[in-house]
Design brief:
The structure is a homodimer.
Chain A (H helix, E strand, L loop, with lengths): L1 H11 L12 H8 L3 H7 L8 H14 L5 H8 L4 E7 H6 L1 H13 L3 E7 L5 H10 L4 E5 L4 H9 L4 E4 L9 E5 L1 H14 L5 E5 L5 H17 L5 E4 L4 H15 L5 E4 L2 H14 L9 E3 L16 E3 L2 H16 L8 E4 L2 E3 L15 H8 L1
Parallel strand pairs in A: 1-2, 1-3, 3-4, 4-5, 5-11, 6-7, 6-8, 8-9
Antiparallel strand pairs in A: 10-12
Helix pairs in contact in A: 2-3, 2-4, 3-4, 7-14, 10-11, 12-13
Chain A binds a DNA duplex through helix 1, helix 3 and helix 5.
DNA sequence: TTGTAAGCGTTATCAA
DNA sequence: TTGATAACGCTTACAA
């Protein structure tokens, strides 16, 4: 008998564990004068309860401050309503809006975001065990997964959507922006405007995004028959931009025609060093471009030529895709590709409309 | 009998709910040839299990890919090992590193971060119900809580630490940086250097941090017997800085001696508009200062005079404080106050060492 | 529509 | 140290 149990535990003020007694659906049932299952049903969207019963239950619940226990529900339904988001600190630092976006979209689906941050891209293994423990209904991962890790998601049947990471293997779902294509576009436009000697300040080695950007650039230059670029490595921060530029000039023996930076932060660092420390006229003597279209890249002091990913749409689609998978619905697109949009700032000489001044400046002037 | 149940559910492949059968501690026990309790104990840090038993269990667990179910544990122990972090999108946007920091510190304590993001500071009510449902062990809140909401945390006995929000009421725990004091310091130093007519570009109305910064400034000016400042409102973004400056000049009929901005982003916007659009020499004709010491404020193009909060320490202490509360240990400091550190950039004329060039420039020159 | 009862997968108590 | 067993608080057949 269950009722007896309740009375018992009241007497002991919590039989097994020391904590204070919590209000449960039994208490509500008792007060409302209905069965416990009636209470449970009253809190479920499409259950069959008469309005009268539901009203009684809700009144009693309110009186007792009753809130259903998610852990118990999770145990019973085998769904936790939790979505794991795994992201490296680096990514969060440079794309904070994406996390907000994901959080909002996940909440909109009635789920909650369990956050796992990584010191490095490849640290996923350290948190994976916790991901399993919490029985998350799905995961969105913006970090590097090994083949074994990918396989484990499949084996444990945890729906997975990769966010801007290269999905090796066929059955892996992902939203991703074509970084190589973006880099190719940038190179094409710069070449069109007469740039011949390119240089790149690369991102950190563990960033697949950076790798794609680099390979896209190198490939396109090769296709165009232009000289091989000078590539130096950076780690996505401001200092890398300035240091990278110095290294490039050192290695090349002169100022390159164009410097493509792995992200906007480095582009800004490169710009500042060029203008304030080396006295290089940008874009007159050298063009500079970045990636990501950070807020800062649009500031008056910079107006960086850069490539914007449709991050808002990507986040929304990632969550939508995950939900489809969680509901076991078939026919979901396995992966969605996006294209970056070139923002013609005033740090690179480009041909074609709108030409000078840059797109942003023109918009400002028009406003 | 439990074993019978297992056999049954195998036969039906999940009795009640349709999902695939999961590996449970019973399966491990069966394979290892021990009782289920032995399995449970083997997975608990300080339980009394013989090495031999533990080894058998671990071998079997590995063979079956067994992972304990957090929901079941949570139900039984009444601890979820979940910490809710409630933060507004705005805050996350401008302080992404804090979230990373909190996440890391929480993980270090063996807990996990359940993220709740808010469109506005005052939207806490919308997510609170979910916070209760998930039975979080504690919460760190960087948003505005009403008295009722504060009371509800107390009533439900959910340990709470406010992050940089004014704790009304006595028994509310918090880590907070003294924003008013920081503003007072800034005003003092600027006044010392001869600035008389101050202006402020205020933050959004729902930001208590902005309110404190403003009141600190106004109070200190009053104490010093300086003219009342011109205060215009902004909303922490770049455009607000430029618009704010124009409004100030409009209202004052001239350029003020010093503009204090509610955050660095607005300070940067203000600077760019002053220099590039209005041709004002900064700091020669006008000083500009901000708050938060963003990365961007240290960039060569800006080198903003600003105030840095010890965010890393604050995040670590917030989590440490929360853990103390969760463990029911008494003697925890009820609230911890921090002081900001003035970063003497080159956008404001200040007296005293190190004088010109700004601190950052001097450091760079020395390097 | 409603109540009864059998799970969900753990931990904790108690006796052996 | 070990095993049997009773919670933990919910959902969901199934029967009424």
């Amino acid at each position: 008998m269950r009722k007896k149990t309740i009375i018992d535990s009241r007497a002991f003020s919590g039989t097994v564990n020391g904590g204070a007694r919590r209000v449960t659906s039994y208490d509500v049932a008792l007060l409302a004068g209905v069965s416990q299952s009636a209470v449970s049903r009253s809190f479920q969207p499409g259950a069959s309860v008469s309005p009268a019963t539901q009203a009684k239950v809700m009144r009693a619940a309110a009186a007792l401050d009753y809130i259903p226990n998610a852990a118990a529900r999770s145990l019973s339904t085998r769904r936790s309503n939790l979505v794991a988001v795994i992201v490296s600190n680096l990514a969060n630092r440079y794309y904070p809006q994406e996390l907000s976006e994901l959080s909002e979209q996940i909440a909109r689906q009635g789920k909650r975001l369990l956050l796992f941050t990584l010191e490095r891209e490849t640290d996923v293994g350290k948190v994976l065990c916790d991901v399993w423990q919490y029985q998350v209904d799905g995961a969105i991962v913006a970090a590097w997964l090994s083949d074994e890790q990918l396989a484990e998601f499949a084996r444990r049947e945890v729906p997975l959507v990769l966010y801007n990471r290269c999905p090796r293997g066929h059955d892996v779902h992902a939203v991703l922006c074509d970084q190589a294509e973006a880099a190719r576009l940038l190179v094409s436009r710069l070449a069109e405007a007469g740039h011949r000697q390119f240089a790149m300040i690369d991102g950190p080695g563990d960033s697949t995004t950076a790798q794609e950007r680099k390979s896209g650039m190198v490939e396109r230059l090769l296709e165009l028959g232009l000289p091989a670029p000078v590539v130096v490595s950076g780690n996505y921060d401001y200092a890398s931009g300035g240091q990278g530029l110095r290294k490039i000039i050192d290695r090349l023996g002169r100022v390159p025609d164009a410097v493509i930076c792995g992200n906007d932060i480095m582009a800004i660092g490169c710009l500042d060093t060029a203008r304030h420390l080396l006295g290089i006229q940008v874009p007159l003597n050298m063009s500079v471009a970045g990636f990501d279209a950070l807020d800062a890249s649009g500031w008056l002091s910079y107006d960086v030529t850069t490539l914007r990913q449709p991050t808002q749409k990507m986040a929304a689609d990632a969550v939508a895709m995950l939900v489809t998978l969680m509901e076991g619905r078939p026919g979901a697109a396995e992966r969605r590709r996006y294209v970056s949009c070139l923002i013609e700032g005033s740090t690179a000489r480009l041909t074609g409309a709108p030409g000078y001044p840059g797109q942003r400046q023109a918009m400002r002037a028009a406003a």
